[in-house]
Amino acid sequence: MDEEYDVIVLGTGLTECILSGMMSVSGKKVLHMDRNKYYGGASASICPLADFYERFNMGTPPAEFMNGRDWNVDLIPKYLMANGQLVQLLIHTGVTRYLEFKSIEGSYVMKGGKVYKVPADGKEALTTSLMGIFEKRRFKSMLQFIQEFDEDDPKTWNIKKKCVKDLTMEELYTEFGVDHNTIDVTGHAIALHLNDDYIKKNCLDGIKRIKLYFDSLSRYGKSPYLYPLYGLGELPQGFARLSAIYGGTYMLDKPCDEIVMEDGKVVGVRSGEEVAKCKMVICDPSYIPEKCNQVGKVVRAICILKHPVPNTNNSLSCQIIIPQNQVQRKSDIYVCCVSYTHQVAAKQFFLATVSATVETDNPELEIKPGLDLLGPIEQKFVSVDDLMEPTDDGICNQVFISKSYDATTHFETTCLDVLDIYRRATGGDFDFSQVKHTSLDDEQ
Q1: Who's near 291: CB < 8 A, 6+ residues apart?
Q2: Residue 162: other Cβ atoms inside 10 A
């Protein structure tokens, strides 16, 4: 360990692992340490099931859950958008060669207490029971305009002689005359906004999000989401293999006793009597909590089921978004479900997670609308975690701290944090034109 590195990364959460891979691939000498004995940090997959029970002080798993080593339970379950920036980063770094992904079978939204499939194309937009016949046509017209929109082609910018670039998202909805239920579906289940703050902002970001959803959907058909077999813990382990190829060093069960500073700038990391010198440090909030602010809390309930989530066409995997307005909240509730077909549970068992940003003094009661959608629950594991953000950008002291994982069931917000840290650490934006392949199929 007593060497000099360009970058020392502390923690093997997904954010840190992606940045470690990006730095390694770009030629940096990287040392990656974790105080834990396992990969993944807060985003680990726990195996066997007994270890997961122990983590929640729940005793011993019942015999009906069969072989405990058949389980890989994500602490923070999330999906990947098939055409999203995170998948492009995975392809760019080459980690995808170590992983196998499976498409999530369905994307759903709750309206009026019922679960509906999110329309996957123009045909489904016209046949969905989510909305009435005239509303379907307005919805289809809006989706068609957005999918044809090209920021580089001015011919696609105008709606009734108005330039879309000048409109807020609220004004865009008004132009197409869609109602508040359609706005809920579009803004939350398709554009994946966390709350309604977006509606007063320029519509370009919303348009890009909607296009991303349908571009991702077109990759594999059933839904825009992907999930790695054997759980999300496979991602950081893939980065460990990648790091070794590029000369990086991984150390598990290695505590960080001190981040060594000189003249207000990081110069190394001490573990016991050993000191590794470096030019910068990248870490998760748990390594320097005094340099972070708590900006909220997230409640998650991980549930073991013996059946698919009801009203999802017996899907072996799915996502359901409960828009804030449907349950009188300030932010959405998220439900995701994977199963034995993803090698994360024993045969015939399912793992469903309900998550939300905490808004009251009774977090578990807040996610009841999501839990009620699951049907009978065999076992439930509830956690409430702090949402942490760094107090500064790290440019002066060269210590770059990631954000905590939010309540969403996808990694798009995590990817924004990765790219932001990369920009601050290197002084430039990541060039996606470096990504030679555009899909996992190309890579394989």
Answers
A1: 390, 391, 392, 399, 401
A2: 13
